[in-house]
Amino acid sequence: MGVALARALSRRGDEVTVLEKEARLAAHQTGHNSGVVHAGLYYAPGSLKATLCAVGREQLREFCEEKRLPYREVGKLVVAVDPSELGALDEIERRSRANGVPDLERIDAPARIAELEPHASGVAAVHSPHTAVVDYTSITEAMAQDVRAAGGSILLGHEVTEIVAERGRVSVRTAVSDHVFDRLVVCAGLHSDVVARFVGADPSPKILPFRGEYWALRPERTGLVRGMIYPVPDPRFPFLGVHFTRGVYDDVHVGPNAVPALAREGYSWRRLSVKDTWESLRWPGALPLARQHWRMGIDEVSASILKPRYFRKAQRFIPELRMSDLRRTDAAGVRAQAWGRAGELLDDFAIDQVDAVTLVRNAPSPAATSSMAIADHLLALL
């Protein structure tokens, strides 16, 4: 999203510098997600998320066509496994139609589900045929090339350590250099609350890192899935649940789940930061969150540790699935989940302004899909 904004700024003629902590772009959330271009099935009609998703997916499709990057419309099937999920499925259909999801189909016949996904099982579904998959890392690199071509700079390995904003100027110190800018826009993802503290912004929302772990179908069993098979999401949580996705390069991955990470960049249980974990535990929202969602937490953590529990979550949608079909991978992502003082998990955009510094505090899914539209929205604010 930060590189998309840099591209939009450079295209309107601004002199742009991008400071990136890592030695490469898309090293965290962008390069570790499912690669899905969302069509807008879940978002409240008229909300900023719904509007930006609709505009952003078209911009992304056109960009991929222009740059000759892969963009595959494999389609998404959201499946109600039993009648208890029909009410929530009805709401997804209502929101999808209000959001203008193209060619949406409501399915109430299991035989029609079998036509689209022969190995899937359910009592009803909605089908979004134009939901696509892409390679977001390649897209980010292509955007960066546009920034450079317009005269902008992208400085890798420049972790920001200090920001001083005063009298309309912003001094930024990194691990290797110092800079002075007229304006600064912070798109720091997993570290957005840390960077916000550099300029004295409100500590809330804080970032609670959630790890999403993926399994993969063994190559000889990828025929079980044609496109994407998703569950009906639980409206209480900003997560979609374990699902099947055929990727842009034809692999099929299963997941992600959602477990609290023990570090901001905790891509496995072995990665532990005492500082990050202690900061989460002492946050005022920690106890309210634990009281409200402890059952879900136990369920997700146990499925992370025990393959049979993860397998049972997946097998609900594909009864033919065997435990041996799931292959553990090193793939995992960490979601920067914004978290309020009362324990609430924020599911909308949050942007702060401190002098000449604009802070993107929360940019939830579908931020990758909507990245170009979000950039245009931020241009208007700037």
Task: Show the helix and strand layout.
Blueprint: H1 2-11, E1 17-19, E2 36-37, H2 48-67, E3 71-72, E4 76-80, H3 86-98, E5 105-107, H4 110-116, E6 124-128, E7 132-134, H5 136-149, E8 153-155, E9 160-166, E10 169-174, E11 178-181, E12 184-186, H6 192-198, E13 206-217, E14 228-231, E15 244-246, E16 252-254, E17 259-260, H7 274-281, H8 286-305, H9 307-315, E18 326-339, E19 350-354, E20 357-362, H10 371-381
Helix pairs in contact: 1-5, 1-10, 2-10, 8-9
CATH topology of the domain at 1-71 and 133-205 and 357-382: FAD/NAD(P)-binding domain
- The portion of residues assigned to helices is 25-40%
Mean pLDDT: 93
- End-to-end separation: 16 Å
What general outline do the C-alpha atoms trace? globular
The profile of the biggest β sheet is: 9 strands, mixed
- Strand residues, percent: 15-25%
Structure notes:
The chain has 382 residues and is α+β, with helices and mostly antiparallel strands. The protein has a domain at 1-71 and 133-205 and 357-382: FAD/NAD(P)-binding domain (3-Layer(bba) Sandwich), CATH 3.50.50. Helix content is 31%, strand content 25%. It has ten helices and 20 strands. Strands 4, 5, 6, 13, 14, 15, 16, 17 and 18 form a nine-stranded mixed sheet that branches. Strands 2-7-3 form a three-stranded antiparallel sheet. Strand 10 and strand 11 (178-181) form a beta hairpin. The longest helix is centred in the N-terminal third of the chain and has 20 residues, at 48-67.
